[in-house]
Design a protein that fits this description.
CATH class of the domain at 3-206 and 383-389: Alpha Beta
CATH architecture of the domain at 3-206 and 383-389: 2-Layer Sandwich
Number of strands: 12
Structural class: alpha+beta
Number of helices: 11
Distance between the termini: 16 Å
Strand content: 15-25%
Order of helices and strands: HEEEEHEHHHEEEHHHHHEEHEE
């Protein structure tokens, strides 16, 4: 479903739900990170792209002009009602509504009151697969509020408002990548984001003969012991040992000289971060030059580092990458890696567009044979970012 088709479908469903037409429609994409994993909290570089899967929000003012907001989702997760004459607070932990409610609270904190309205949320971004359905929901809500109020935010401020909503209302301490790419994406471009300076550089992907295949393993391993927090602390420990503020400022040579002063696991975590930052910068150069063999090899090297040094992969993700590598460039696959936090979720492969069908069928059949799990696959070129839609 294209974005325009999704918008029309959302508008129709709004009319059926509320008995009147929507006045405003806004959409924002999910994303896939091409390379640069577990780097944002180390002040490094990431290279995401928006995917052509979107969250669309349709809205109309309340008929009685009451200071009340009603939010519904076509996913059937229940309605939420807000009384704007009262302080806005999060719902129970884990409630889907905390993402848009946090954004509404951010606008109210800036003195921007949208007034009462009814809204319907409709999304094609897969939930829980590491493709940032949460950021798509936040950014589409913020874009809707901009259209409703006429109060246009600076793009960086808009992304940070959405990130704050996720931190404070949804209770998820995410980095800045997801919101930035959802706000700032441009069609046929990737985004090289400096997580320290927040400088975002659009990287053109002009070669239409290549695209990215997203493979959802449809597994998510439940882990104990706070694995993400543990790795973050290990990175901080490595930086402290090296006498620097963050691993962004380290080099491979500096790390090797300090190897003996670190626990082996801390050393390996740092080795991943330092090498991944370098890979990400080179990958952006490769995309700009349409040097697909180089980009593909950097993706494979990233996966190896995430599997061995950072230890966030799993058997299912490894299986996808092994199958992709066995297909190889002759079969249309230049590179593949896990993407997202790890321990399940998605892999992303760099694939020739004329080979997408054959590659998808082979990966799907071999993955299911190995794991007895059906994967979900779709292809995407770099898509555009948040937008107000015409009805």
């Amino acid at each position: 479903m294209t974005l325009n088709e999704l918008a029309r479908d959302t508008a129709e469903q709004f009319n059926k739900t509320y008995g009147r037409p929507a006045r405003w429609l806004a959409g924002a994409p999910g994303r896939v990170n091409i390379i640069g994993e577990h780097i944002d909290y180390n002040d490094g570089f990431v290279l995401p792209m928006a995917i052509d899967r979107y969250t669309v929000v349709a809205a109309a003012p309340t008929a009685d002009q009451a200071q009340r907001i009603q939010l519904r989702s076509t996913a059937g997760d229940g309605a939420i009602s807000l009384d704007l004459s009262q302080p806005v607070k999060p719902a129970a932990k884990g409630a889907w509504s905390n993402y848009p409610v946090g954004v509404i609270a951010g606008f109210l904190a800036r003195g921007v009151n949208p007034g009462g309205f009814d809204a319907l949320i409709h999304s094609t971004v897969p939930v829980g697969s590491g493709l940032s359905s949460s950021a798509a929901l936040e950014v589409s809500t913020a874009t809707l509020l901009e259209a409703m109020t006429g109060h246009k935010l600076d793009p960086v401020d808009k992304a940070l408002l959405c990130q704050k909503a996720e931190h404070e209302y949804a209770g998820m301490p995410c980095g800045i990548m997801d919101q930035f790419i959802s706000v700032m994406a441009k069609e046929s471009h990737l985004l090289l984001l400096d997580c320290r300076s927040r400088r975002a550089e659009l990287v053109p992907m002009t070669d239409a003969s290549m695209g990215f295949l997203i493979i959802n393993t449809n597994v998510k391993h439940e882990l104990t012991g706070g694995e993400y927090a543990k790795r973050r602390a290990q990175c901080e420990q490595a930086a402290k040992t090296l006498g620097i503020g963050s691993l962004r400022d380290a080099t491979a040579d500096v790390l090797e000289r300090a190897h003996g002063k670190m626990e082996e696991v801390v050393y390996r975590r740092a080795r991943h971060v330092i090498s991944e930052i370098e890979r990400t910068i080179h990958a952006a150069e490769g995309v700009r030059a349409s040097n697909w063999p180089t980009v593909g090899q950097l993706m494979y090297a990233s996966h190896t580092s995430l599997r061995e040094d950072y230890e966030v992969s799993c058997a299912e993700l490894d299986a996808v990458v092994e199958i992709a590598e066995s297909i190889g460039p002759k079969g249309g696959v230049s590179g593949c890696r896990m993407t997202g936090g790890g321990f399940g979720g998605c892999a992303v492969a760099l694939v020739r567009t004329d080979a997408v069908t054959a590659v998808s069928e082979r990966i799907a059949s071999e993955y299911e044979r190995r794991t007895r799990i059906k994967p979900t696959l779709f292809v995407s070129r770099p898509a555009g970012g948040a937008t107000v839609l015409k009805i």
